[in-house]
Amino acid sequence: MTTTPMDGGQALIRALENEGVDLLFGLPGGAILPVYDPLIDSSIRHVLVRHEQGAGHMASGYAHATGRPGVLMVTSGPGATNAVTALCDAHLDSVPMVCITGQVPVGAIGTDAFQECDTTGITMSVTKHNFLVTEAQDIPRVVKEAFHIATTGRPGPVLVDIPKDIVDPGNPASAMEWSDDIEMDLPGYNPDTGVDKADIAAAADLIRSAERPVLYVGGGILKARAAEALRQLAELTGIHVVTTLMARGAFPDSHDLCLGMPGMHGNFTAVTAMQEADLLVALGARFDDRVTGRLDGFAPDARIVHVDIDSAELGKVRRADVAIRGDCRVAIEALVAELQADGLGDADRVAWRSRVSGWQERFPLVYEAWVPGQALKPQYVIERLRDLSPDDTIVASGVGQHQMWASQYWNFDHPYTWINSGGLGTMGYAIPAAIGAKAGMPDRMVWAIDGDGCFQMTAQELVTATVEGFPIKVALLNNSYLGMVRQWQEMFYDERYSEVFLSKDVPDYKMWAQSMGCEAMRVDDPDEIDAAITKANEIDDRPVVIDFRVMAEEKVYPMVPSGATNSDLVVPPLQADQPR
Amino acid sequence: MNVAEPDYRYHTLVVTVENKSGVLARVAGLFARRGFNIESLAVAPTDDDRFSRLTIVVDLESAPLDQVVKQLDKLVNVVEIRELHPGSAVERELMIVTVEAEPDRRDELVEQLDRAGGKVLSVGADRMMLSLVGPPKRIDEFENLLRPFGIVELQRTGRVALAVLDEDA
Ligand SMILES: Cc1ncc(C[n+]2csc(CCOP(=O)(O)OP(=O)(O)O)c2C)c(N)n1
Ligand SMILES: [Mg+2]
Question: Which residues surround ligand 2, an ion (CB under 5 A)?
């Protein structure tokens, strides 16, 4: 077998190229410097961010939109610690990512050297796995292992920490022999994806006899690329589908069987159908507390079929009557085949369907009409954005009220069009995630729906967007508050507002956006909304920011107060008198 | 064979891990982060130097065994996990202990030691150092027996365990 002598830095870049990496988000510094040199000669495009957290969320947005792992590269110490939030975010949302961090030379590790930090120690609990490489010769193998782990089984972020001496051509420790024949050595890693036939048969039996079944669909469906299989299952059985915050778009909102989002800010029908169900078929969902509300009152009559690739999710929160460890697509296809072969059963679901449609009629998503003199209705802004933008627009969101309204009021008809921070709830996610999505899907329109609090956390990445040529669009729902926290203080702390007011007019978002090279507009009047959106949608040579001045008092409804059961869902005042 | 009465609150996991730096920290970190309690932990290399073996005694009042095992199994460096039910495991622990042993009480002490099957490791003017290997329960009992003499220093290894052999093994 032939080998080629090279240095560790060249080997790292070559290994990334071998993995098919086309884009790398990052920012250099002392410890990672030697790797940035061979990068100049590589086919990989590097996107220079303004903060390493941004690089992490860009990698995440890229991964969500394309299905390929997102890759970031940062320096040691502060570069690595700045990336920690993004790693944790990706860990909780199972996003495939690989993070390369520089490290001080092997001999300096443990001496509190300049910009040394215990990167693998710090990131141990926020990554699926991490590696500290100490020999140049190991670089190709570890990179291969990192991508394998990040993308198989339950995906997640993997970090590879690379000491400077093993990539520095001036240091003998960087000498290595490249061979194309790279063998992984992961004796403890077996992301098994087969499913047990007997479990499938048992699940099918429960489905056949259920009178009030609901398909409870989570982000795992998207990770498994199982949207098509899900649609077959739903249409074959006629069972309604709820799509969690992580699964919006996995089943079309416009489909008759789609009930939309369940959970704390889910719509009445989705929440109540789950609550009243006699069978929940959980597919790539993990019974998150934001979905279940108070656990001991959650879906009290429901039997549970739970499919997840991560066996630790099975039974972690709610005991499953049938637990199926496996890839969602494989499991759903097997279930469809089983139901086609042995029949759908003859459970009577007529009464259930009419209850569901009754809820849909009585409890649609509503908000009070705008009255002259008021600031804009945020929900209306989103509705206009939805109706004036292409059907396959990718929407990335921050965290807060605007996120919930975006999830509620957008119409998600395609998988991989909704990108948000579900598990960690990371403010500032929207702009860098939108950039990453645009970088991966340059032909698609990408809107970030952001809050003013969130915007101030990561807006500097709009500089990256301008300079690197990623013409994303930002709808800033500016209510001058940390609105979601304000809502909790209004509802649960006697309207005692503590540290939630940002400012009415500082910063000037329009000037700020302009200074970052964006086209910028401000909209105060409902009549100007359409024109502003239309203009934004026509611009494709630079980012656009629209500062929509929205009402501070508006609240997200429905809402399950924390600690309450889903049966105690609070509906908007307009529906308070409706019989449930 | 002396099999001590099983204590069902504790469960023993024999975990084979890759012999790499940081693996113990991953296991310990997992237990800490998820609120699982470790009752005892013993680590040693195996006959294959690529792997080490951890014997972890888990306090099942803190978490269902199933969750502990599944979460452990997700660690990339964990190669194999064997659950040893208290009734089907051979468990051993080593204790070394220094006790007060005035000359007039020495006979009594040595008699207790002989009965338990322990050894005298060293003898001082009025102290003795002893060792005992046995099932953890028996070590507990012996430790209690020694207490009236006056324990100066005591060190236990935590338990190691293997599955009971089948008849035809
Ligand atoms: C980094 C971070 N810090 C704090 C929070 C807690 N938090 C959740 S929503 C929210 C308010 C977000 O404000 P804004 O971006 O203006 O959105 P709005 O709710 O007003 O739409 C806060 C502070 C968080 N989720 N993330
Ligand atoms: Mg706000």
Answer: A 451-453, 479, 481, 483
